[in-house]
Write a structure and sequence with these properties.
Structural class of chain A: alpha+beta
CATH superfamily of the largest domain in chain A: Transcription factor LuxR-like, autoinducer-binding domain
Number of helices of chain A: 11
Helix content of chain A: 40-55%
Largest interface: A-B, 45 and 46 residues
Number of domains of chain A: 2
Oligomer: homodimer
Radius of gyration of chain A: 22 Å
CATH class of the largest domain in chain A: Alpha Beta
Number of strands of chain A: 5
Largest sheet of chain A: 5 strands, antiparallel
Strand order of the largest sheet of chain A: 2-1-5-4-3
Chain lengths: 243, 243
DNA sequence: TTTCTCCTCCCCAAAAATGGTGAGGTCGCA
DNA sequence: TGCGACCTCACCATTTTTGGGGAGGAGAAA
C-alpha cells in the first residue's frame, strides 16, 4: 500500500480523470487507475438494476465475475444484502457473514482473488436504483482500519462521481419521466397505497365512490397500469406519490 | 460571501464539529456554523419520512417552517419533488418551476427569507428513506455558479455526515428492520406490483391460486398491511421488492 | 371564444379478491 | 430429535373491485 503522503494527492487527479471518462471502457480504466493510485487490490463499481440485472465495472478477475453471475451470488453476497439495508459506507467486517452460504461465498471470493478486507459505499437513486462502490484489499485488520479511516471521505466522493459518470454513459438506466397525475389522482393513489379500500378513500376525500373510480381509472390509464395495485406500484416507483 | 481562500478551510473543521454533535440542538448549531463559515444565507437538513412525516433542522425562519408545514408544501416544493426524482446534487435553477403552484411557492419562499439561489443534495437510505441537505443564498447566477462549483464536493461530504449524525441522534427514524419476506412471498409481491392478477401470478409461479393466496396473506401479515395493494406498497417502500 | 383538463355524479353485471379453517410435505437449526 | 419456517394444496360464502356506458360544471389555456 502506498504511503499516506502519496495517497493524499490522487483524489483531485482521480476525480478529474473520472470527469473526462467518455465511455464504459474509460470507466474501466478509471477503476484501474484508482486501484493503482491507492495501491489497493481491487476497485469495483457494481450496479443492480431494478429488474435484478446487474452491471459491473472494476478490477475483479473475469473468472470471478463470471462465477458471480453464473451462481447468481447477488442474493447471497453479504456485501450486497447488507449494504442494501444500510445508509452509510461500511467496512466488510461489520457485515453479517454468519450464515453458511455467506461463509462459503467469502471463502470462494478470496480464492478468486478478492481481498480479505473491503469497504463499500452504497449509492441510491430514485426508483429504487442501487449501486455499490467497493474497494477491497488483502492486509491485516489494523492496517485496513487506518487506511479506511484516512480515505473514507475520498471514497465517498469517488463513489459519487463514479456513479454519476456511469449513469451518464448508460442513459438507459435513467427511465423516462412519466406523465404527472392530477391532485385528486395523487390523493387517491396515496390513500390506496396506505391500505384504504375504495369506500374509505372516497369517504376520506368526501367524494362518491363513483367519482373516486374515475380518478383511479384515469390514473391507471396515465400510468399504463393494468390494475389498481399496478398503478400504485408505478406511482410509487416513479416518485409520483410518497407513502 | 466569504473569500475562496477562507472558504477552503472550514471543511475539516465543520466535519469534526459534526462528528461531535451530541443532540439535535447541536445539529441545529452545526447548521448555523456551516452557514457562517461559508457566509451563505441558509443551511437546511430536511428529512422526509416514508409516512410523509418530516423533520427539519437548519437556519430557515420559524415562520417559514410553520408556513411550510401548515400548507403541506412538501407536495408542492419543487426542490423536494425534483430531488426525489434525481440521483445527484442539483442547483435549484435546474428544477422545474414552471407550474403555477411552484411559482407561487417560490415567491412565498423568497418573501420568507429563503434565498433566490439554492443547491440541494439528495440522500437516500434503505426502505425509501429520503433526506435533503440544502444550502440557499441570495446572489446573482454567476456568483452562485462559481460558488457551487467550488464547493460541490464539500457539500456532498457535509451532507453525508450531517445525515449520518441526524440518523444517529434520532434512531426512531431507522425503523424496525421489517421482517423479511420469504422468496415465494417476494415473487408474489413482485409480480403483483407488475400488474399481474392473482391468476396470472399463480400461473407464472406454477402454483395453484390457493397457494398463492397463502403467500399474499402471509406477506400481508408480515408487513402489517390491510390489503394486497397496501402490502405491495409497503414491500416497495421498504425495499423488499424492486419493480 | 373555443378547447382542454379536471372534478363531480350515476347505473348495472361480471370478475376478482378476501377471510376463515385445515392439512401434508421438506429443510435447516439447535 | 423436535421446533419452526417455508412451500404446497383445498372449500366455503361474502365483499370488493372492475369494465363500459353517459353527463354537467368550473377553470385555465390558446
Amino acid at each position: 500500500m502506498v504511503s499516506a503522503a502519496m495517497a493524499k494527492q490522487p483524489l483531485e487527479f482521480i476525480l478529474e480523470e473520472l470527469e473526462q471518462a467518455d465511455g464504459l471502457e474509460a470507466l474501466q480504466r478509471a477503476s484501474e487507475q484508482i486501484r493503482d493510485h491507492y495501491g489497493i487490490d481491487h476497485v469495483v463499481y457494481h450496479w443492480v438494476d431494478s429488474a435484478g440485472d446487474q452491471y459491473g465495472c472494476g478490477t475483479y478477475s473475469d473468472a470471478w465475475r463470471e462465477r458471480y453471475l453464473e451462481q447468481n451470488y447477488l442474493r447471497v453476497d453479504p456485501v450486497i444484502v447488507g449494504c442494501f439495508q444500510r445508509f452509510h459506507p461500511v467496512d466488510w467486517k461489520r457485515l453479517d457473514w454468519s450464515s453458511k452460504a455467506a461463509r462459503a461465498f467469502q471463502a470462494e471470493a478470496i480464492a478468486y482473488g478478492v481481498g480479505n478486507q473491503g469497504f463499500s459505499v452504497p449509492i441510491r437513486g430514485p426508483n429504487g436504483q442501487f449501486a455499490l462502490f467497493t474497494i477491497s484489499h488483502s492486509c491485516n485488520d489494523d492496517t485496513w482500519a487506518n487506511w479506511t479511516e484516512t480515505h473514507r471521505r475520498d471514497l465517498i466522493l469517488i463513489a459519487h462521481d463514479f456513479n454519476q459518470k456511469a449513469l451518464e454513459l448508460e442513459p438507459d438506466r435513467t427511465p423516462e419521466q412519466s406523465q404527472a397525475l392530477s391532485p385528486r389522482e395523487v390523493d387517491a393513489m396515496t390513500l390506496l397505497a396506505m391500505g384504504y379500500s375504495r369506500a374509505q378513500v372516497a369517504d376520506t376525500l368526501s367524494i362518491s365512490e363513483h367519482t373516486l373510480r374515475v380518478y383511479i381509472e384515469s390514473a391507471r390509464f396515465k400510468l399504463g397500469a393494468l390494475n389498481t395495485t399496478h398503478a400504485v406500484a408505478r406511482a410509487m416507483s416513479r416518485g409520483l406519490i410518497v407513502v
